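FW: tagging you since you asked about this chain on Friday. Here's the raw sequence from the shared folder, copied in full. Didn't touch anything.
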Amino acid sequence: MSAHWNAAALRFLRSLQDPETSGTRSVPGGSVTLYGTCYAALGQFYLGVDGIPSEKTRAFIGECQDPQTGLMIGPELINFEPPTGVMHGREHLLFHLTCAAVPTCQQFGIPLKHPIRAAHRFCDLEYLREWMDRRDLRNAWFEGNNILFVGQLLIYLRDVERHTKAQPALDAWFHWLDTHVDPGNGLWGTNGYCSPLEAVCGGYHQLLVYYHENHPLTSPDGMVDTVLGLQHADGGFNPSGNAGACEDVDSVDILVNLYKRFGYRRADIRFALRRCMRHILATQNPDGGFPYNRDCSQSHMGIPGTSAPPNVSTMFPTWFRIHSLALMAEVLTDEEELDVPFRFTSVLSMGWHRSWNKSAAFLSRADRLLETGAALRLSARRMKRISRNFRVRALRAISSPRTVARHIQSRH
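HL: got it, structure written out here
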């Protein structure tokens, strides 16, 4: 589904709103969630809709702030205690939801009545350094979320609460990351801890803070090479295929940001984005929404009210898929499917992006010819890989004990 995909997506975003509370469900038939309410409002904003959210929705969102901690606690988390030992524990979920809901409040002028006291401990440099040292880069994807929460909240404390110790803490945050980065590709974890996919899906998060603060990047060329190397033949950014909304947006966000900052492999990046665009639009359902990926059960970190069967449209991936397409539109200025009045939120968070003058990024016929070269190079690499794999399988078959024994028997 691609024709007028944006109008269909808009219908889906509105379809899960509860008329009684003016909150929005995360999944069809589910209960109202703060996540669903924020993602629905942000998704509509990306698509150029004005006059959102309604006063009743704004009140629903604002009332979710906890007066003691300042964290945002939606109805989905009020009484939810994750099982002991799971990766996404309660503190992680509370910070994750807060870092989605607070920027929503800032974007739409929803007043927050309380300071985010739960984040103030990260302004203590000794506490922050000890916390950073406990990050386990074997789980770089998970830790990337945690690291973003702290960087994002430090910027909020600096810019909104005017906390005087927030900037020194943010400097220490950057220092830790700069000293733990893999110098070969500018990511975290690939230096002996995790796979390139894990590192990209983790690094996307803290890189948002790097872009926001214009902090120097390590090895942007290596980063581009790593991300491009993840793309599957189906166009998604998972080497195993059937990439989910997270894997795609994490990769697309990195490619678009580096495309706009550097001149490295631009034709290859455009060609990769076009392939991913087709992959994403092909996953859209007739109701206008998107599932996380195809043929897999869905749950947003195990949170109540977010589970859905395979292939059902849900709010979280729909929000992220719209954002991915908006990112691509920054580069692919000649794609009809991306001729949408996209815009981005102005507040740092997942979903934030610093736009540019797209008219200055006009793509010429010469640019498209360069992409043809990129396609030919990709085909050549695939053929080489197929040929190499065939030779390996053939050698294994020839040298297998069963083959050798059969050969010996044939000579008697």
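FW: The beta strands are 24-25, 32-33.
HL: agreed, and The chain has 14 helices and two strands.
FW: great, closing this out.
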